[in-house]
Design goal:
This protein has 710 residues and is an alpha+beta fold. Strands 35-36-38-37-39-40-41-42 form an eight-stranded mixed sheet, sandwiched between helices. Strands 5, 6, 7, 8 and 9 form a five-stranded antiparallel sheet that branches. Helix 3 (83-94) packs across helix 12. The protein is globular.
Length: 710
Amino acid sequence: MKKYLLLLTALLVGIQASGQTASAPEPISYPKTRKVDTTTTYFGTKVADPYRWLEDDQAADTKLWVQAENQVTQDYLSKIPYRAAIRERLTKLWDYERYSTPTEEGAYTYFYKNTGLQGRGVLYRQLGDAAPEVFLDPNTFSKSGTISLAGIEFTHDGSLAAYQLSESGSDWHQVVVLRTADKSIVGDTLQNVTFSGLAWQGNAGFYYSSYDRPKTGSLLTSKTQFHKLYYHQLGTAQSADKLVFGGEQNPYRYLTADLTADERFLVITASNTTTGNALYVQDLSKPGSHILTVVPDEKHTHRVIGNVGKLLYIVTNLDVAPKFQVVFAVATKPEPENWHVLIPETQNIGDVTMAGGKLFAIHSAGALSRVRQYSLEGNLEQLVEVPQLGTVSGFRGKPTQRELYYAFTSYTLPPLIFKYRISTGKSVLYKVPPVRFDPNKYESKIVFYQSKDGTRIPMVLTHKKGLALNGKNPTLLYAYGGFGVNMTPSFSTSNIILLENGGIYAVPNLRGGGEYGEAWHLAGTKLNKQNVFDDYIAAAEYLITHNYTSPAYLAISGGSNGGLLVGATLSQRPDLFKVAFPAVGVLDMLRYHLFTTGAGWAYDYGTAQDSPEMFSYLYKYSPYHALKPATYPATLITTADHDDRVVPAHSFKFAARLQESQHGSAPVLIRIETNAGHSAGRSTAQLISEQTDKWAFLFENMGVKYPNVP
């Protein structure tokens, strides 16, 4: 190993840091990362960026650095004596049948199934009570197993299907069309489709979205700017596809298209950020009809959920309904001044579907979900009972369906799938995953705590029943806090390792999320972003004050925007916890908007170019820039070499500076998954490997035995 690192010294010259763990007395020899005199001036302030060279993911020296860092990380992890035992336990836990919520397409019912340790779930179909048959097996897409199924859409009659392929988890996809009867391929494979749904118009063709492929630079890092909505006619070349909306004439960063169930209306949502959207409709039943503007600005969020004839049903949080309401309007006059309220704002409406001639509203309040069935006239008909604190999803289907499927999950229950009879409001348990876990031994409960400014924040704690509050329980504090995303309960096979070893899984609903409407979201954006970090820090302090755990047994974890959360908290309060897991994080807040679709996050973050005030605010909390020589907790940074959403340069630069800044003995490592993307597309083997390393790192640095058998 030392010989290998010496060979890299000519390319990697810079600062060397060291650390050690209790079981590894020798300090870690990190790769020496060279520093380059690179600066950028923002409103008169020069900002040093010595590791900017790591942004070039295609450069030979970056690739060598990645190899060297991965080698150091694996050398460290390989010395943890119970790492193999954790892998063995996780492999056994993962080995159970898992199903998706079924959908009806034509005469068939389609569903995904993973027998347990298959690399990827297989898409099956079933005709009535006949035995299910394999329709698509993603495990056969490539010998390397790096190509995954990223979505599929069927024509109304189910005779054709268009599905998306992702290589190594990339957001740049291919689209293949099949005849479902014999699975024969129709036409050519479409290339370079990204951030796109597929919306069929009859059996003739479909709508999709894409950016122009970058002409120079890396496909994984180059900035993408103008999304384009195309129509592809089957049997024609992709080069002949018609531009329907977007591009430089209608510049939007994100475009999605959908058709109502009767295929009468094309619905387009358009935005330049990840929050809020403009809304457009086109009546396809009238040849030559124009695209009409429903809502022209992007200040709020709107979605057409269906129609009955010329009436459009819309869910929106416009103006007086920050927690969303359902309205309807005549398609010829769809503007907000012509809307009529159908389901008024009450609790936060997390989702609304239109199926079987009914409306289904999933109301959420933090970790609680409630489902209400309404008539198309807005009359409440049924309240769908759910087993306990948890999350409901589903209730999707065709207007003619009489039965629907939905799933319920919680922190202690794997997804239970139910069949729902619309006329009676009765649910029948359809699938129960045979996971090797007894939920009756564990409990989840909601607690509330005060943040720095007095705001009351909810948090769900999951642990063994009868847990002793002795301050020594290994605890993982996981959160997100951004983009209006709701953190609702979900089951994690991986978390069983923590729970059965006497640990606590804690999830607070931080500001920046959408759990309590748009006001809750806005309270954690731009010049309010510090609220999110304060909420997270206060959650840790609550757990410590109430003796659930202590700094020696507390770990923090989050991914993407949650990786930013962990990075910022690590730099602000390194004394508060023992272990940190920033995953695929946004860690350079001054340059995030320069890569791929990063500019679309500006609604939540602001950019360093906006104003002197915004620059100063970002510069202060930006994890990469906020690091200074100090004693930091044990940190395992995770990213992937094909992440083209939050590019791995964020993690590379942060790792280099944290290794440089670490004055304590705790390890600072980075684990870089190869042939993987931001989150989707990972195989079962990759997931087990990553989670094995996470838990081994956590227990090792907390000094906790595994397994911890009384």
